[in-house]
Specification:
single chain, about 425 residues, Rossmann fold, 2 domains, 7-stranded mixed sheet, 12 helices
Length: about 425
C-alpha cells in the first residue's frame, strides 16, 4: 500500500542533502557539550546533529524501509519539538540503496563526511558491504537486521534479538503451551542465508534438546507455491509450521494447509509478517493460526513506549496503516537518543565518543517498545527475549500481544556468536 508520509520523507531528505552539499563546511563546527573545543566533527554544528539513513526506498523491501524511516522521523520530530538532544536538533538525511551492496557503498561515500553516525542501515548484505569503511571512519550504524552474522562488530549495535534466538524461544513456547511435545516434529520453510539459516539453526538446537524433530525445506526467494512442501509436512504429521521466508509464502502456506485440513500453528519472525496479509484470501487462516516472534511489541500494546509512538503518529496526522517496521525505526531512534545523551554527558560529541557510549549500554529499558537491550558484549545478542504476537485483523497494525512481557525460553542462549 502507499505510505504518504514515507514519500514526504524522501523529498525532505533530498532537500536536506542538497542543503548539506551547498553548505559544505557549515554542517560541522564545534563538537562540545559543557566545554568548547576547536575540533571539527562531521555532522555536528552548534545547533544541529546530522545522522544518515541508508535504506532501500525502492525495490522489494521499500515498504518496510519507508516504515522504519517513518518511525525514525516521528521520534526525532517529537524530540526536536521538546528541545532536541545535547542542546541541538537532530536531522536525518536518507539515501536510497535499493538493497544493493554496491549502491550502499556509493551512498555512504556521498554522505559520510556530513554525518555523525548512521541511524538506519537496512539489510545484512548491504551492511557487510559498507562495514570496512564504517570501521575505518569510526562510524557507528544501527542496523535494521537481526542477523547473528553481524555480531562482534563494534560499529554495529544490533537493536534486538537475533533470528536464531527468536526461533529457540518459539520452540520453547510451543512446548510450554502444550502445542508441541517430545516425539513431535515441525516443518521449517526457510530462505538460505543469514535470515532463514539462522532461524533454522535456532529451532533445530532447541528442538534437539527436547526430543523434537525438524524437517527443513529450503526454498528459493523466487518460489511462489509451497504445495509439495505443505503436502509433505501434512504427511509427516508435523505439529507446527515454522517459516523464515517472505510474507506471500506465509499466505500460500496458510491457504494450502487449511485446504488439506492441516491446521497447525504457523510461527514466523518479524520480516515474514505484514498486516496487508489480513486483506488476502488467506486472511482467516493467518489470523487464526499465525504467531509472530519479534523483538518488538505490537502497535496495540499498552506499554508506555508504544503509547508514546501512537501519540506521535496521531500528531503527525498519518493516514497510513502502521506496521512493525514503524516500531523498529522508532526504537532505533530511541537507542540512538540514549547514546547521544550519554556521549554528551561525558564531554565533546564526536564519532569516537558516540561509539563508546553505545558500547557502554548495559541495560537499556525500552519501556515496552522493544525488548530491553544490553550492548556491552557485541559478540552475543543484545537480548535473549522476544514478544509473542498474534495476527489480528481487528487490531491496528494487525497484531495483538499474547502476553504482557517478553518471553525468554529455557533453552535460549547465544548459539551463533561473533567470537
Amino acid at each position: 500500500m502507499q505510505r504518504s508520509r514515507g514519500k514526504t520523507t524522501v523529498v525532505m531528505s533530498a532537500t536536506a542533502l542538497l542543503a548539506v552539499g551547498l553548505l559544505a563546511g557549515c554542517t560541522s563546527t564545534t563538537a562540545a557539550t559543557g566545554g568548547a573545543t576547536n575540533a571539527v566533527v562531521p555532522g555536528v554544528s552548534a545547533k544541529q546533529i546530522t545522522l544518515g539513513a541508508l535504506v532501500p526506498l525502492t525495490g522489494q523491501f521499500a515498504a518496510g524501509a519507508e516504515a522504519s524511516l517513518d518511525g525514525v522521523n516521528l521520534y526525532w520530530k517529537s524530540i526536536n519539538a521538546a528541545g532536541g538532544v545535547c542542546g541541538r536538533k537532530v536531522n536525518v538525511i536518507a539515501r536510497d540503496t535499493a538493497y544493493d551492496p554496491q549502491k550502499t557503498v556509493t551512498a555512504y561515500a556521498a554522505i559520510n563526511t556530513q554525518i555523525l553516525g548512521i541511524q538506519l542501515l537496512t539489510g545484512t548484505p548491504t551492511t557487510e558491504a559498507v562495514l570496512p569503511q564504517l570501521s575505518q571512519d569510526g562510524m557507528v550504524a544501527v542496523p535494521m537486521s537481526w542477523s547473528p552474522d553481524l555480531l562482534g562488530k563494534a560499529s554495529l549495535p544490533i537493536p534486538g534479538t537475533t533470528y536464531d534466538v527468536d526461533m529457540m524461544n518459539a520452540v520453547d513456547y510451543l512446548l510450554g503451551s502444550g502445542q508441541l511435545k517430545k516425539g513431535d516434529s515441525i516443518g521449517y520453510v526457510y530462505f538460505q542465508g543469514d535470515f532463514g539459516s539462522a532461524g533454522l539453526a535456532g529451532a533445530t538446537y532447541a528442538a534437539k534438546l527436547n526430543g523434537v524433530t525438524v524437517h527443513p525445506y529450503q526454498v528459493d526467494p523466487t518460489v511462489t507455491d509451497l504445495s509439495s512442501q505443505v503436502s509433505q509436512m501434512a504427511s509427516d504429521h508435523d505439529s507446527a509450521i515454522f517459516m523464515s521466508a517472505s510474507p506471500p509464502l506465509l499466505a500460500n502456506a496458510a491457504a494450502l494447509s487449511q485446504t488439506d485440513g492441516f491446521t497447525v500453528p504457523i510461527v514466523v519472525p518479524t520480516p515474514t509478517y505484514v498486516p496487508e496479509l489480513l486483506a488476502s484470501p488467506a486472511a482467516a487462516q493467518i489470523a487464526e493460526r499465525t504467531i509472530v516472534v519479534s523483538p518488538y511489541n505490537a502497535w496495540s500494546a499498552t506499554a508506555p513506549g508504544v503509547k508514546a509512538l501512537r501519540a506521535d503518529f496521531a500528531k503527525a496526522g498519518d493516514k497510513t496503516d502502521p506496521q512493525q517496521f514503524d516500531i523498529a525505526g522508532y526504537a532505533a531512534a530511541t537507542l540512538m537518543h540514549s547514546a547521544l545523551k550519554a556521549a554528551c554527558a561525558k564531554g565533546p560529541l564526536t564519532r569516537a565518543s558516540l561509539k563508546t557510549a553505545f558500547a557502554r549500554v548495559s541495560s537499556l529499558n525500552m519501556n515496552g517498545l522493544s525488548v530491553d537491550l544490553s550492548l556491552t558484549d557485541r559478540s552475543v545478542p543484545p537480548s535473549l527475549s522476544d514478544y509473542f504476537l498474534k495476527a489480528d485483523k481487528s487490531a491496528v497494525g494487525g497484531l495483538t500481544p499474547m502476553m504482557d512481557q517478553p518471553y525468554k525460553g529455557k533453552d535460549a542462549k547465544p548459539l551463533l556468536t561473533g567470537k
